[in-house]
Amino acid sequence: MATSNDIKKGMCIEFSNDIFKIIEFMHVKPGKGPAFVRTKMKSVTNGKVLDNTFSAGHKIDEVKVITRKFQYLYEDDNGFHFMNNDDFSQIYLDKNMIENSQFMKAGEEVTIILKDSDESPLSAEIPPTVYLEVIEADPGVKGNTATNALKNSIVETGARVMVPLFIEAGDKIKVNTEDGSYLERVK
Please, what is the Cα angle at 49 between 48 and 52, to 5 degrees? Predict the structure, then answer.
């Protein structure tokens, strides 16, 4: 069993009947009173971010996790199916276990976090950026605006992305998967 003094970025702990990954932490030693550790934790099962303060020496339950690369295969009514590229075994994840899943396309590599003790899947992390083809884009009329204008577009996965006026159907674009924003046009 670890203590709050052992906390480091990326560590997974059991807290409030859930498993959280430490995103940020800061050891604080005020001039008056006991030391403490201020943390920002993200639930690996539902993605909620939680701020919490642990007193110095507080006992915490560390959870051993492993990460593996899986290839996204397809989606059905209940969730997503992935294949391990090493042994070709398949794994299934519920829709609520993956954030921003609307940017995943078949064949894309995804990192899945598994509990080390029984190798049960906890969550999946898609790459921070993806390359997608624009299937449909609203017409953009040049000269209607004085600033950088954006228009609606639909990419190959069915997600809506706001793009600059010069993007047309058939163009490939780079998309930030965290907020769904357009980054650049890809040749």
Answer: 130
